[in-house]
Queue: 4 jobs
Job 1
Amino acid sequence: MDIMDENDIKSEAALYFETPAQAVETISRLLVASDWKKLSAYYDLSDSGVKREELESGRFFKYKEAPLGPHFMRQVAIKHPFSPGYEYERHSHEGGGKIRVYLVMEIDQGGGMIQKSLAAFMMIETDGGYQILPERVSYFDEKYLDNR
């Protein structure tokens, strides 16, 4: 009998998003509420090496120390999948059912200056819907860089 990694087994409690846009709204609410257990149920951890207890405890989502950057980012200190305040911009299919979700946040600096902050995270599309993948990615993928 093969021993399977606990992350390869889909839990009955696994949750799925209907769309990437809906995922961003729900993830933001769960991050603000610090509902790590529910948020972790939206993750597909297959072949990731990430243990579910790291997500359920909140350790996976938060920086140990507040990152350098704009004041609002230091207060939140969320490293995955994104800090609350970002909005869905678009998504692209990356192959193998993987989806890259692109996010934007506009910050009014006053005097007509608008600063844009960009972020991205990965999802996987399955028959049940969309789930978050734990890998970290950049907004600026190779396709973007090749087309500049």
Job 2
Amino acid sequence: MPGPLFLPALQGSFGDWTYYSALVTLDDIVERIGYAAPLAENSSLAQQMQRRLDDGGRAEDIADYLLRNEDRFFNALVVGVLGGQPEWHPFSLSSHQPAHELGAVVERDQDLVGYLELSGDETLFALDGQHRLAGIRRALQQNPALGREKLSLIFVPHLATPAGVIRTRTLFISLNKKAVPVKRADIIILDEVDLTAIITRRLIDTDARFNRDVIDVQRFGNAIPANSPSWTTIGNFYDANNMLIRHFVEGRDEDELRDAAKIRLSEERIAFYQAGVVDFYERLARVEPLLRTVMGADAERRRAALLDARTLANPRLIARPVGLKIITAAAAELRLTSDRRHTELAINAGRAAAAVEAVRTEIEPETVAQMRDCAPAEVTAFLEEGDGAAAACEVQRCRETRQSAADDDDVFGHERDAS
């Protein structure tokens, strides 16, 4: 049983809860704090909760984060306190600087600063932060030196009565069930670990070919107004780049990419993957005149070309966000088969058609039917080692295949948004 522990703390109140915010070493956290088992009346259910947390993948991810990031940081864990005799010891406030006379502040907050004493007889359990607690335990097993670091905890008294259990259970659910996941838009805009988000922002901010006129940074979905002067949305651009990074870029490291979801890569490796993404668009632009125009410096010419490419008279796959998604998916599928296309065009064209099918639920079925033959040809053309007659022939074949689209119903849709 651990002995008494004095923690520098603040006392506060919120609603009808009194709580204590204190700094605690990771060693003391692991030694003293358990999971929320006291809230489970059935001991078997409590054991299931503990096994799920100890064996879960999230705990491993959190441990990895703690071990590999010097700039690691957690928000406070919320800890329930059951039994024992925790005591609050306020102390008087004064300033050693004569010019900093606290005056009325001292009188108002005199009892809110002090030490929280834990006797060691208490049962402490995590109300919020159970996965973080499991991750801390794993991390300390591998690197005990982390135990000296301190984390902020919020201690909340728990009454061992039927009403007290209901009250604390309600708090547990409120803290966990109502937490809002980070939105996709915020990841794209702010995440400094997510490799694709970093590269997407850098291309928009530093490469004029993908600037804010080319990429609509206000839209995060896969639809864009048919009359928009922008090529695609930042959300669609992110998705396409992610597909390229993980399945197309030559020399990619699968283990490294798995780590990239948790650990920021070095600047050298970020630059490597960024160059691979840019290489894809440059190669595609060599065989796709519309993309050359989109990536060019003439904004008016780009706008006119995109508007024309979203009409029934001249429907172009590359002018639609969903078209970019199809092309990058097909290119990734082709890359998985072979890095050289000369001897495997027929096989890969079929595999690319399967890649189109994989995203069919996101597009109108009749649109997919018209595009299925086109996507492999357009991707095949730019993947050719030489983009001469063979590439031109493939692109022309695709365009001839879809000439009848104008005679059908509005295949690409004259809706407000261009998917």
Job 3
Amino acid sequence: MRLIRLVSPNKEAVGEFQNLFPDIRVKPQSKIGLLSASLPLSQKRIVINTSQNKLLFKTIDSEANFTEVTLDDGYYNNGEIVEELNNKLNYALSSTRNSNMGFQWNCLLDKTNRLEIQFRRGAYIPWIVPNGNVHNITITAGGRYTPTIAPTGDNTFAVSSKHFINSCGVFRLKIKTTNDFIMGLFQEQADDTLLSATDMFYGIGIGSGNYTYISNKVTFILGTPVPATIDDIISIDLSEGSFNFNVYRGGNLLATIVSFPLDVKESYKTGITLQNVLSSVDTIRWNPDPRQSETVDGVTMETYTDIDTENNVDDYHLDFSEPVLGAIPTPSNRKNRWMRLNFNSDEIMKMLGFAVLRHRSQLLKHTFKATNPLDDSNTPNSVVIELPNLSLESYDGQTSQRRNILSIIPTLAQSNNRLTFYAPTPIMLSMNNDREFNLRQLSCRILDLNDTVLLLEQPGAEITLLIS
């Protein structure tokens, strides 16, 4: 009798592997059986591949084509697939389609592990900040911001109390002088009496008449200067998974100063600082996050409320015209319109727990709820151990064929995050060999009852065989 230990290589993430041996002489009419198995099965039970990796959506029904969303191929656990959906749906929104502006996806699991795909239509509105958030700045009835004192240490600023949208939208303004100023995105101020570049994760500004940008609280000067001109539109455009810091002149894009990748898990407030007594800006507009609500502790992203309760409003548009003196710029608003969300195949629909391929809603906010929960179990009902390169006397009623199945393990015990099996009296199967042969390699497949190869965690599987 011989004992053989099979071990999956550490680099292998799937339960399909080979082990090599020096020549093991196997006598005629030998038998083989499973003595034990220790399997660190992965929690990544969701498989994304080319047959089940696409969703389609329209934010309004009149769009000529669906926007296609392609998930990355791979293996996912429940949390990872929710994050992948949330990222890819929001990254597919583009500021080149006005109906995408202010639109936001949010994917999550409910308490019963059912997937929810939510959307909100946000507003594109004037940037109006509470009085307590305006420091040493005068705001005219026409929406122009100017310092009330000569600035010292970035003490002439205004900040939003709400957060900027983190899907698709803009925070933009028009400059009325080319004096120093900054606008940007931040989370906390080091000193609530100041708003400096060192508070901002991302930003754009003017220094000595030329455009500058801020990355991770550091100000950078462009290698090739881009001079500022009065009435330039400066805009933080959030589109297709990127923050794009753009300058528009005469209604056209003049330059993209810098771009940064979007992380949809992060949220930022918006702010401006007028760093010269002559600095002046107006026509400030933005897309606030449509999911937020105010609480006594600040802003929470967990309660869903509409910022604008108006339903029957105009189409989306971006209006950069100078406001009439004494008037607040007219915002473009949201409109009740049909939106559509489709799965491109039955496979991805069922995998995500849904029972219908095509969904639609005419509301400003809606949740598409899955019918069935995602599989949160990393323990299959049974495990099939198969040795493909042997000729075993095993037969499968599912395929009505002989298969090289060594054993079917109906139950497993979990110990130290490994699923273990031990057979004190192994069932020995004929190797169906009429003559002696050299066993130099053994292939092993670890499958579920659907013949899907199971995923493994490190350090891999250990299987012990007996040959008699």
Job 4
Amino acid sequence: MKKLLLVLALGLSSGNALAIDECFTGSWHDSNNNLGEGINLEILPNKVVGYFYTWTEGKRNMYTLEGVKVESTVLMNMHSSYWTEGNYRVRLLGASEITVLDENTITFSYELFTAPEYPDFFLVPPCTEDCSAIYEYTRLTQPIPCS
């Protein structure tokens, strides 16, 4: 399922001249929004991992992200992680994409599944409204030294 999601998302990516690399590792946020929403990214040679944190229904949510780089775009799966019955569980919730606008600005977009993907999906309910969004984020942390 993960590979299929990334292959399908490849058709959504758009090309820019500025390729994403380890220099984009760090924290990114919406400087016009004081709710504390944003993403933390770790750009590795063959993988991208991160966290997306946001507010919904008055509570803070954090989602894990993992995916791959494709030139100026990162395509990622979005997961929810939680404890239940003494076990740690991770559920695939949807797909996300990061596109570089310039060295200090990126867009982050996501689309959540609207129907259950797993038999025990009731533990993480499917999205019923506001199932997709696009944010423009600016760099919060200093860029790491890059060659």
